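lol so apparently i was supposed to do this last week
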Amino acid sequence: MSLGPDAVNALLWLLHQAQQTGWQWLDAWGLTQPLHGQPGWPFAHRLAAEYLLNEPGQSRRLVLALAALLLLSLLGALAWRWRRARGWLAGVALALLALTPWPEWRLLVRPTVPTAFHQSPNGFRASSIVQGQRTYLAHCQRCHGADGRGEGPDAPGLAMWPPTLNGSLLWKRLDGELFWRIRHGLQDRHGQSTMPGSRLSDQQIWDLLDFVRAQAAGQSLRQTGGWMHPVPVPDASISCHQGSRQLSSLRGQRLRLVLTGGQGPVATEDPRLFSVAVGQDAADLDCQADNEELTQALAILLGVPPQELPGHQLIADKFGWLRVRGQPGAAQWSEDDLVCRTPGMPNPGNPAQAQASPADGLDAIIRRIDSEPVRPQRGGFPH
Ligand code: HEC
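anyway here it is w/ heme C bound
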């Protein structure tokens, strides 16, 4: 028997909290070194959350082991207070030690870097994605390729072929781990450099990370028709009837971004969604974003050249995750437009529910994004 996905997620959340709290205490006692503007991680290892995620059997062993350790300390306390029972308490402790299915401790941790838990100061802004793209084209493209697949012009001459940045690699690592590797480079087991370090500023590297994640999302949408990992709405300023505001301030509502300038019927307001027109053409929606950076960032996220953007629509859930893509020319919404789904949820949705929804299909989609929230992860930890 192993733990179900919800139990594993709860365990990882608890471990993550324990790890973070321990680290904050060390920081409060002055036992961490500040570097790159944030307190560093003082250990060479961290909990291997992604291993536990993939091995629910080991998660179960870990839970049993933690329970056994708790019991052992209880037995220790009893033995200290209750001298005469020491003999049989020791017997119970030995039996517990022998019978507990201990996990493989060495697999529960993995090597990491001093910036492991550094947080990006960016908050995934459209401007940082666009800035990151410039840095990428100047410094990374020659090896990793214009589309991030690792087929840049210099790649064939390298000792090791660069990995594709569009697979699951980026999500297996913590942001701070990628930051460190891009800054300091990578070596193989013999200490030979495989990727050179860079002299980029901290800000340039955080921008690069926003860009490579956005590019990976766009490439995955192109190739598989879906986003494997949840993508947030890139933040930018927009103008609304009440004045200018940030897209991120609309969190808590279902947000629709309508790329203007396309052929076909003009999008109108919809009471189920908060609608923002993106592009130069005026549209009679709740807000408008005539913001070149937002347009470019959305082109990267959708994996299309900017001239193909008009007519696209995107819908984000109340937590700010992009979930639905409407393609130009499509007259109706269908559940195939749900490009970011909860793993394991079937598509198309329950036919009985689909039948009950009105003709435009949007009700069924809204029901699904409300009832099937997505859980982003970094390095196996809940993000
Ligand atoms: C000289 C070629 C070259 C350049 C330039 C280069 N890379 Fe790499 N990159 C590689 C190779 C080769 C690897 C695989 C190294 C390994 O696994 O030991 C790699 C690995 C990576 C990884 C995966 C790291 C991991 O945790 O496994 C990321 C992310 C990455 N590169 C991003 C970048 C970014 C961003 C830039 C631009 C600042 C860049 N690279 C510049 C060759 C290069």
